[in-house]
Write a structure and sequence with these properties.
This protein has 804 residues and is an alpha/beta fold. The chain contains 30 helices and 25 strands. It is globular and about 85 Å long.
Length: 804
Amino acid sequence: MIRDDLGKKLLFFDGGMGTLLQERGLKPGELPEVWNLEHGEEVSAIHQAYIEAGSDIILTNTFGANALKFHDGRYSVKGVIEAAVSHVKTAVERGAGGRKIYIALDVGPTGKLLKPMGDLAFEEAYEAFKEVMIYGEAAGADLIHIETMSDTYEIKAAVLAAKENTKLPVFVTAVFDERQKLLTGADIPAFVSLLEGLRVDALGVNCGLGPKQMMPIVEKLQKYASIPVIVKPNAGLPKQKDGKTVYEIEPDVFAEMMEEIVKKGATIIGGCCGTTPAHLKVLTERCRNISLKAIEKKAFTIISSYGKTVVFGKGSKIIGERINPTGKKRFKQALKDHDMDYILKEGIIQEDNGAHILDVNVGLPDINEVSMMTEAVTALQSVTSLPLQIDTVNPEAMEKALRIYNGKAMVNSVSGKQESMDAVFPLIQKYGGVVIGLTLDENGIPETAEGRLHVAQKIINEAAKYGIEKKDIVIDALAMTISSEPQGALVTLETLRRIRQELEVHTVLGVSNISFGLPNRPIINSNFYTMAMFNGLSAGIINPSSEEMMKSYYAYHALMNLDENCTRYIENYGVQASGFIPTKSVENGKPDSGMTLRSAIERGLKDEAERLARGLVREQKPLDIINVELIPALDSVGKGFEKGTVFLPQLLMSADAAKGAFDVLKEGMASEESGVKKKEKVILATVKGDIHDIGKNIVKVLLENYSFDVIDLGKDVAPEKILEEAQKQHVGLVGLSALMTTTVVSMEETIRLLNEQLPECKVMVGGAVLNQEYADMIGADFYGKDAMQSVYYAQKLFEKKENL
């Protein structure tokens, strides 16, 4: 089995399939997977060429084979996959010469965005992947390779489908940009921690970049990964030569750079777009006998969301405690009333006031905690990128939340009771997570630090039976109120210190418990908080809207040289003489009076944006509201997206909130009186043969929010159809998208037709396989590296036309 070889010998994948199929006659717009049924000998010959070049792992020609793409009844997913696996087997028989070759079921993305960003539900994606995995294992695949992914949520759906329905090893690679981010915002530590939590066998990077550009990514993967790292670059940048797509890096140069990548620690290598059997032959000959760098276990305690990573270690982290009904009458009412906006605003306020993680507890006797927990987690992840702490004693609610959570969550909690460990640890083993261990067991809460350490050690030992390492356990030393336990603070502080020193795990506390039953509790809480951090508190569960607590937090970090140049302290207290001024909490009642329409849109609060718009339209002209509130909000979010401080889910939720507000404003005005009109028409289409429309759909949402009249022709659109529609609609701008190298020829043909028949129409292009140089070569007027750049181009283009 391939698991026996991982980390012990250098393994070689094959290279690109699409460009080789094009050389053998794959037509523009034709699905490569169909060749498994119609041109099987050609597919098998390509596999054989890679085997003879020295590849150990051969990918089946199934990158796009799933029910979401093969749904017209002409071909079955089962038939495509069975044929694809059989072609690799034939190639092995003909070309392996007795050498062991592994058959990897190739699984690519669905081409759709998952909810809440898109329209594909998580479980729908799971079902589509599940079918592929089952057919692949039954046909004889040796492993599953999930590749070219750009969204951690879709990755999670695919991995769960593989792990829950097959016994095959699972490899995962994703497409990182040069900022070392995925399309939806995840960085490398988030990607690694998610996949290691899901117990995949190897992880890495493929496509998008050449080997030189991937080297910093490989270094970062090596820093965080404790499992084998896969690296499959493109052969540099694509170019057009004699009507064909070619790549700039020759085999010997490619192999030389890949040798350096192996020396950095990669143990599974191969090629992606543009790499050929010639590349693999030189690569295997040059690198086969290189001594591998040993894979080291890393000890980082990491939790993550789709766009933020929290690494425990330096300083203390803040876990916001406000999304919890305990002692909060208004929050309890919000849960009963299903007032989701109230819950979301509590999360946003805590984020604004400095929380790193948000605790989410929605347990009340008279509500359905399972459904409310999953809904709250999904909704919170649509408006904040902070990682979440799933806080429940209900195992079903815990599992449902862990399953749909986008990232690696923190889990509150497990205790030393056997019943608790039996219920919680299997969930952490399956879904990953950092679990809080409460230092109590069947005998209650020990009165001494020694007793609590004993319980903590029991939790650590039991977790190890499930393969859960110490880095994924954070121990709660338990703060007991000093009003009834005079030694309570002293015991807790000793426990904190000894857990960090003797057990070498991180710690957490619900800090405010220390003062229960006492007057003026913030005095006790803030001083105890400082003492706890000094004694090794890794994360405090606190109210970040408390001025006293945050003063303690920032002062401690400044005093302990954990705040370089006292930067954060000065940011918070350098201007206001009174120090920290928290954002008003919504606990007392009413929607936060400081919330403006602009801030509601920036935060993606659609219901709140609609409510505020209804109020404003009674007093102000709709056009003034649009210019003062809507457009500045969208501009702010767009600039944040370009800088990497705002992530795709937030961008899209903000756009949705703006659309909701705009619809309200339209209700209150006659279009002929408003001064608001649709801007120029823009056609968007994914080119012939390409059925991935994520990028196109993102651009559509943003253009519509800037009042452009978008004509969406969908995906797999023929050049002639695009030209016909552009002529009929008198369109001044066409946007074309492509994800697959095999479909760029269709993009070039579309541009040629438009230039010949409608020269006044401009064309902008985008997609994972494109870059500025390639866009120039195929005659595009503009290349959009991201969706906001396309919006800015459209604005400038039509402003220029209006001024002519």
